[in-house]
Write a structure and sequence with these properties.
Layout lengths: L7 H7 L9 H22 L4 H4 L15 H15 L3 E6 L6 E2 L11 E9 L10 E9 L10 H4 L8 E7 L3 E6 L4 E7 L4 E6 L10 E3 L10 H11 L8 E2 L5 H11 L1 E5 L12 H14 L2 E4 L19 E5 H13 L1
Parallel strand pairs: 1-3, 9-10, 9-11
Antiparallel strand pairs: 1-2, 3-4, 4-5, 5-6, 6-7, 7-8, 11-13, 12-13
Helix pairs in contact: 1-2, 2-4, 6-9
Bound molecules: 2,5-anhydro-1,6-di-O-phosphono-D-mannitol and magnesium ion.
2,5-anhydro-1,6-di-O-phosphono-D-mannitol binds next to β3 and α7.
Length: about 325
């Protein structure tokens, strides 16, 4: 186990040669995400002190306005990604439109675009439950030397060069893939470094956990209703256990380690579900497939969906391969 004490920084450099485009740029980009993760983690960990040191909208001791954590996370990731000369554009769940980076990149030489959900599940902050950051990285498709365009962001998930998440949980972890498996790193807060703690993460082929907001059951399509009934049936290795944190990153993380399925289907209230294709589903789908799991909208592979708009929503079924295939079977036969 030579991996044991490897830091994320060392791991990124050592594995640079396995990147599809072997250059220091992607390493540098991953390093800037690592840095932003540490800054945001520091702030997320203080969230419970907000009543003592000031709530959002208050003025802090330096005379600066206190911000909501999702706004803070959005700014920190954008600032950190902008500083290095690698990213030409950023799209964020928190922003209406994509951002063109031209402060550091006047001649539009940078090759990568980053899509980010800076603080997913942020309603959980108030009750001290885990939240996460999700990121997705593509090479631009428009020529270097020209301003970044919408089509650089509207790429199919299968074009991702890297994706990952940070889970701010009982420990803070950064989990990512560059298309060569999934590795997880745990932050040692005393030292401020991420260490490789979960090499080569894989979904068990099947599992016994299903994660869905069952309060919406009545609005779900018949196929999903039938699948939920199947999960609850006393037969073979069932009934399964129901676990729903309401924080995609945390639910995904648990299911990847223990074996399970996460569902956010379409409903009569939300015909395309709730989750965003570009900021949430594609990166999680890339991670899932790299970890031998599966991600689908109930019928189609998530990473094959042709995006049409930045904030597009899509139904999402993701997790252990055999469980996702079973849910798809119920959808098909409903
Ligand atoms: P958000 O981006 O507004 O935080 O919404 C995404 C989150 C996911 O993390 C989570 O799985 C889901 O929304 C929970 O939604 P619901 O409360 O409808 O079950
Ligand atoms: Mg989100």
């Amino acid at each position: 186990m030579t991996h044991k004490k490897q830091t994320l920084g060392e791991f990124i450099i050592e594995n640079q040669s396995s990147f599809q485009y072997s250059s220091g740029e992607l390493s540098s980009l991953l390093n800037s995400l690592r840095l932003a993760a540490k800054i945001v983690n520091h702030e997320v960990n203080k969230a419970g002190l907000v009543d003592i040191i000031g709530a959002a909208g208050d003025t802090n001791i330096q005379g600066e306005d206190q911000q909501k954590l999702d706004v803070y996370a959005n700014e920190k990731f954008i600032q950190t990604l902008t500083k290095r000369n690698i990213v030409c554009g950023i799209a964020s769940e928190e922003e209406d439109d994509f951002i063109t980076i031209n402060s550091q990149d006047e001649n539009h030489q940078n090759k990568y675009v980053v899509l980010i959900d800076p603080l997913d599940g942020s309603s959980n902050i108030d009750v001290n439950v885990s939240v996460g950051t999700i990121f997705s990285i593509y090479r631009r498709v428009t020529p270097v030397g020209t301003p970044v365009m919408l089509k650089d962001f509207l790429q199919k998930g299968s074009e991702q060069v890297a994706a990952g998440y940070i889970v701010y949980g009982t420990s803070t972890m950064l989990v990512y893939t560059t298309g060569d498996g999934v590795n997880g790193f745990t932050l040692n807060p005393a030292i401020g470094s991420f260490y490789l703690s979960h090499p080569c993460m894989e979904f068990p082929e099947s599992g016994s956990i299903y994660s869905v907001n069952e309060g919406n059951y009545i609005h779900f399509p018949q196929g999903i209703k039938n699948y939920i009934k199947y999960c609850q049936k006393e037969e073979e290795d069932r009934p399964y256990t129901s676990r729903y944190i309401g924080s995609l990153v945390s639910d995904f993380h648990r299911n990847m380690i223990k074996g399970g399925i996460y569902l956010y289907p379409q409903s009569s209230k939300n015909p395309n579900g709730k989750l965003r294709l570009l900021y949430e589903c594609n990166p999680m789908a890339f991670l899932a497939e790299q970890a031998r799991g599966k991600a689908s909208d109930g019928y189609t592979r998530i990473m094959d969906i042709e995006p049409t708009e930045l904030h597009q929503r899509v139904p999402f079924v993701c997790g252990s391969r055999l469980m996702v295939e079973k849910a798809e079977e119920f959808m098909k036969n409903a």
